[in-house]
Amino acid sequence: MSSTINTMLIEKRVFNPSKEFVSRARISGMDQYRAMCEEAERNPDSFWRTLAQENLQWRKPFTKVLNDSNAPFYTWFEDGELNVSENCLDVHVKNGNGDKTAIIFEADDGTVQSITYRDLLARVCRIANGIKTLGYGKGDRAIIYLPMSIEAIAVMQACARLGLTHSVVFGGFSARSLHQRIVDVGAKLVITADAQVRGGRQIPLKAAVDEALSYEGGDVVEKVVVYERTGSQVDWVEGRDVRLSEIEAGQAEECEPVAVEAEHPLFVLYTSGSTGKPKGVQHSSGGYLLWAKMTALWVFDAKPEDIFWCTADVGWVTGHSYIAYGSMAAGLTQIVFEGIPTYPNAGRFWEMVQRHKVSIFYTAPTAIRSLIKASELNPEHHPRRYDLSSLRLLGSVGEPINPEAWMWYYENVGGSRCPIVDTWWQTETGGHILTPLPGATPLKPGSCTLPLPGIDAAVVDESGKELPAGAGGLLVIRRPWPAMIRTVWGDENRFRTSYFPSELGGMYMAGDNAQRDEDGYFWILGRTDDVLSVSGHRLGGTEIESALVAHELVAEAAVVGRPDATTGEAIVAFIMLKQSAPDGEEAQKIAETLRNWVAREVGPIAKPRDIRFGNSLPKTRSGKIMRRLLRLVAEGRDIDQDTSTLENPDVLKQFSDVY
Ligand code: PRX
Questions:
Q1: The pairing of beta strand 360-363 with beta strand 393-397
Q2: pTM score
Q3: Residue 7's pLDDT is what?
Q4: Is 288 helix (H, G, I), strand (E, B) or coil?
Q5: What do you get for the CA distance between the two ends of the chain, in Å?
Q6: Predicted confidence (pLDDT) per residue in 353-399, tens digit
Q7: What pLDDT shows up at residue 443?
Q8: If you measure from the C-alpha of residue 423 to the centroid of ligand 1, how many angstroms do you get, rounded to a whole number?
Q9: Fewer Cβ neighbours under 10 Å: the N or C end of the chain?
Q10: What is the rounded distance in angstroms from the CA atom of residue 345 to the CA atom of residue 349?
């Protein structure tokens, strides 16, 4: 946290958008930005009404904009009806853009396949008709566990077309995590693939589904649809399992979109919170889509001729809003990439930008940092070796971008020509919240700058009082916005207590610490809870602790994040075994067992980097684990406080000794 504060104090560089960029931008100049903000503040009803009327196609027009009578359960455009897939696909075909390329898919091995909006619509309709034939539709839930593919997007769109609420699970989560989500959301249908291919390796997916369904409660699932990505051998349950190609075969290429209420849940996406169990973040159809589309247009300054590439996976919210929905509603041509940035070598991203003439590139700081490192090791894969002249805008998402990485990205990828939009948002916000507008906002490396028009963000203290410039506090959003989380699936109480604590008097609490500088710019300082960010993935410390404690050898566990130059944070686990603390080879062996256990229980992405053993955990006399001290130990720093109030100060020394 302290490094970000220092950054803000010393970071004086400002980068203004070029005249050329401003002259062609959708929102050009700060005057236009401010006018939009003022309009949204003065007359929110007409601001949102106009946007929703002009940018979405409604089956039944809405009359009401915001209903705040049951706060914090806000509803937007509640008496209107629409279909999300119609707004993402049919509208473009009807507007004469059917032949425009919707998706350029590049497989792990470099094979490229493109699909037009017209053909994508036909594919979505066939899949939707197939799902309908299986007997599912509005009111049902489907779990999607698919690799990055045209199929993944088509399946999401097909669900949207039918009003079937989907919940996408990232392929890096294990069978246990998949099972938890299947049961929580009550899915009757799972759509998966035989395997996924990443970095030249095949990773089975169907086998994880089989395992998940074998656990208690997994039998709620009636059908498993399998996309044959690799054609690899999978176990088959007759009557339950069916191939995607079979349900599509012979289906009509038209499928009437089902009009749903604006508040109908388009999807539930699980994310880590401060307790062990992931939260099912429920999103709407109308308000969500409106904001996903508007932000794609405004923040990416999207134009019809752009080639847009968001490198996220559809298993995360970024892939929902800026691959599957917002960018589709905006009618963009976009890249969908199956693989990883370092295969076959660390020049993959730059080579793809060159090959496909990408003009807007949106990625995570962790990817940038790992590519900086790789290009230092092997200059052959340095971005300057590639023709990146097609780029006109860069974006960053998921974690703070340190100014050095920002500068490297700006100079070496963007050729000191492309603005960088550092977009702060969350699974819960549905779309961008704090971000530069590339044709307006002067940029400061490391700051996500200012709120979008219509967003009332602030930094407050624990009683909800706004803090002056330079003071760190809680990041809040004071007024509702259309794409906000509607509830935690099946747990209204958790929704209220997690995001609208009574001390803050009804403001949305993001769970991040932030501060503003004298220009009003926001600087994100990190999470207020134990949520970790590892390679841009949001993981719950408590969730990993629960998994560790579930192992028969473990008595207690505490998990903290240690700053890491490449992955943002690295997971460090402090463990008290039921037996006394091991050392040497035995410690290494048990650590490996526990690492694999976490991979099994949560997913390979949650494996602790470092596991330390002690005969107890440092606790206050009232029994609270001192995570702050463990963080210092994890970083190898000196303990800067008197530890005499600890129940067992000696254990800190034990944890400091790495076996
Ligand atoms: O801590 C913030 C960080 O990521 C969290 C949200 O994670 P998730 O719901 O997985 O969504 C990530 C993609 C939108 C936030 O609470 N975060 C996200 N973007 C930024 C960020 N931190 C700093 N700067 C950002 N641009």
A1: parallel
A2: 0.93
A3: 60
A4: helix
A5: 28
A6: 999 999 999 999 999 999 999 999 999 999 999 999 999 999 999 99
A7: 98
A8: 8
A9: N
A10: 9
Ligand 1 pocket by C-beta < 6 Å: which residues? 271, 316-318, 397-400, 422-427, 448, 510-512, 524, 527, 533, 538
Which residue has the least CA distance to atom 18 on ligand 1?
A: 398
Which residue has the CA at smallest separation from atom 7 of ligand 1?
426
How far, in Å, is the centroid of ligand 1 from the Cα of 267? 19
269 Cα: distance to centroid of ligand 1 (angstroms): 15
The answer to whether residues 560 and 510 touch, using CB atoms and an 8 Å cutoff, is no
DSSP E strand stretches across 604-657: 610-614
- Give distance in angstroms: CA of 378 to centre of ligand 1: 30
The structure tokens listed for 453 are 């028009």
Q: How confident is the model at residue 107 (pLDDT cuts 50, 70, 90)?
A: very high
CA angle at residue 309 from 318 to 382, to 5 degrees?
115
Ligand 1: which of 271, 423, 425, 543 to mutate, most ligand atoms within 8 Å of CB? Answer: 425
Q: Which atom from ligand 1 is nearest to the alpha carbon of 531?
A: 1
Total residue length of the chain: 659
> Alpha-carbon torsion 246, 248, 252, 255, what sign?
positive
Write the DSSP string, 305-371.
Answer: T-EEEE---TTSHHHIIIIIIHHHHTT-EEEEE-S-TTSS-TTHHHHHHHHHT-SEEEE-HHHHHHH
Calculate how far, in angstroms, residue 239's C-alpha sits from the geometric centre of ligand 1.
42
pLDDT in tens, 483-500: 999 999 999 999 999 999
**Before 72, cis peptide (omega within 30)?**
yes
Candidate of 474, 524, 532 to mutate for ligand 1, largest count of ligand atoms within 8 Å of Cβ: 524
Instruction: Indicate the top mutation candidate among 399, 423, 522 to test ligand 1's pocket, ranked by most ligand atoms within 8 A of CB.
Output: 399
Pair 191, 144: CB distance under 8 Å: yes
Of 281-290, 390-399, 635-644, minimum mean pLDDT range: 635-644
Rounded to an integer, what distance in angstroms lies between the CA atom of residue 94 and that of residue 357? 27
Average pLDDT over residues 28-53: 98
Q: Which amino acid is at 19?
A: K
